Each structure stands twice: as structure tokens, then as C-alpha cells.
Amino acid sequence: MQRKVVSVLVNNHPGVLTRVTSLFGRRGYNIDSLTVSVTNIPDISRITLVITGDVHMLEQMIAQTSKLEEVREIFALNMDASLVRELLLVKVAADETNRGNITAIANVFKAKIIDLSVESMVLELTGEQNKIDGFLTVLGEYEILEVCRTGITALSRGPVNYHV
Hints:
Layout: E1 2-11, H1 16-26, E2 31-38, E3 44-53, H2 55-66, E4 71-76, E5 82-93, H3 99-109, E6 112-116, E7 120-127, H4 129-139, E8 144-149, E9 153-156
Antiparallel strand pairs: 1-3, 1-4, 2-3, 5-7, 5-8, 5-9, 6-7
Helix pairs in contact: 3-4
């Protein structure tokens, strides 16, 4: 089994995301992670998918997705030549007895404290998936109240190598 990060450039129209994800669902393939945003070209959106499967399945899904009318370009990212990040927001129960320890952990991982109340803290961390997983493991010593992760987003390094 391989894990691929796939970038799909699509027309920025209503329902495009549904058509792309429905294709995966109809074929019985799971999407591990999904992010979508408008690109620097307003009529084009980028869908970043993380999918796991054997080589044949991954090639088949990329080929089938490329046939959708709204898809302008699709390619698997070369992980050695790409920047891959995820955003985490986590709310932790914090009072005067543990706030210092949680702040120390945040400093080690270079997380930001973006909200503080009498009973909790909200921390923000951006990074690779294993860094975020490690941060959550260490924070597991404390009471985690809420977690929100964006899923992976990625760009290849260097010049743009697609034409939309």
C-alpha cells in the first residue's frame, strides 16, 4: 500500500467537490484527507487529496478523476520535492496549576497560544502530520477538550509544472 498526496486543479464551480469525491465513493475508495481552496486564479480551485492504495488503484483513480469535465489538471506530488503541511487547533483544559506546563510544551513544538480563558487554552500548530501527531500525544497528558485539523495541504517546490 502506498500513500499519495494528489493535487487536483478544478473549475471553481458549485458541486465540483461533490463530483470528485463521489467518484471515489462510487469506486469504494477512501479519501484519507481532503482540503480545498481557491488558487491565485479565481476561477480555479485546488483540491488536495491524500489517498492510500496499491499502485494500480492509485493510477486508476488519478486517470478516472482526470476524465471529469471540471478537472483542469491532476497530479501526484513527489514527496521529496514538495511542502506538506497541516493546521491544528486544539483546546486544552488549563488553569493556574497546569498553564505553565502546557505553555512549555507549546514552546517546544513552536505552537501559538491563540486564546486563553480562566479554564482553557486554544493552541495553533502548523506542520507536518507527524509533528502534529507528536504534539497531540504530549498534550494527551492534559485534558483535551476539542481538536480540529485541516487535513493535508501541499505544493510542489520550484517552478509551476502544470498548465491550466
